[in-house]
Amino acid sequence: MPAVFVVFVGPAGSGKSTLVASYSSWARKNLILRVAPVNLDPGAEEVKYKPVFDIRNYFTLRDIMEKYGLGPNGAFIKASELIAEKLDEVFSQPPFSNPDKWDLVLVDTPGQMEAFLFRPSSSVFLDSLRKLGNTVVAYVIDASAVARVSDAVFLWFLYVLIQVKTGLISVPVINKSDIAVNPRLLKLLIENPSALTSEVGSEGFAAEIIPDLIQIAEKTRGPLRPVMVSAVNEEDMEKLHVLLHEAFCACGDLT
User: Fold this and answer.
1) SS3 call for 24
2) CA gap 152, 131 in Å, rounded
């Protein structure tokens, strides 16, 4: 059976790379799974896992900045385009070339999420990926960035937009539970998002629009509840694994 591909996306600093490292380590040790981490971030100085495929072997962010005279943001956009241009070459390399050898392929995407995910070139990559096997997007939310209801709604709507943009099964993962700013708010986000309406208070224009946004979020969140984990402490990786299993309970196997 070919691998399940999990594409980790999220705002810069949400802990995607650390989560890939922790989850891959946990899955190997506890489930004896064959896990292939993939680094697609050309700007990464170092990663805490040993990538089976590393885009930095083709180019780095600094290479692009120097060659094309671009700043960091422009270089991230150019990197996304280069990945699409080199797609045949990329997919001729493990783990893309031998998906039957792996149980899980964990794809760590660039820190500048919008420069990768919201560009047309990302669709080319994801469309090719889903042809290799079951593919899910893990959207990583930074628990330390959620202090108010408006923070939670903003980050949740990015999750909704990601589902629209990719057309892929997506699961929400709240990372950094060890340094959560407002654990009670996160608990509501996980268990009862509609209750967030009563938490809005007087936040100006936000107080007027947030209840409507929460209603839309409720309609679009689907059957999968978020899980809260701590990648840095490797805590609750089993919850993440169960969530991914639920995402594929009808079309795949992660056991």
Assistant:
1) helix
2) 33
H/E run at residue 247: helix 237-247
Task: With beta carbons less than 8 A apart as the criterion, state whether 137 and 7 touch.
Answer: yes
**The pair of three-digit structure tokens given for residue 112, joined into one six-digit string:** 């500048």
Please tell me the distance from the alpha carbon of residue 98 to that of residue 53, in angstroms, as a whole number. Answer: 12
Q: Residue 142 to residues 83, 121, 154, 156, 208: CA-CA distances in angstroms?
A: 27, 26, 12, 11, 25
What contacts 79, CB < 8 A, 6 or more positions away?
Answer: 42, 43, 55, 59, 61, 64, 110, 115, 116
Nearest partner of 240 among 146, 140, 147, judged by Cα: 140
Query: SS3 for 129-159, per residue?
Result: HHHHCCEEEEEEEEHHHCCCHHHHHHHHHHH
d(CA 236, CA 252): 22
**Residue 96: its H or E element:** none
C-alpha torsion 183→187→190→196, nearest 10: -100
Q: Tell me the per-residue pLDDT of 83-134, one tens digit each, with 9 for 90 and over.
A: 999 999 999 999 999 999 999 999 999 988 888 888 888 899 999 999 999 9
Whether 254 shows a pLDDT value over 70: the answer reads: no
Question: What local confidence, expressed as pLDDT, does residue 230 receive?
Answer: 97
Beta-bridge partner residues of 104: 4, 35
Which residue type sits at 223? P
pLDDT on residue 59: 96
Tell me the pTM.
0.91
Angle between helices 16-31 and 237-247 (to 10 degrees): 90
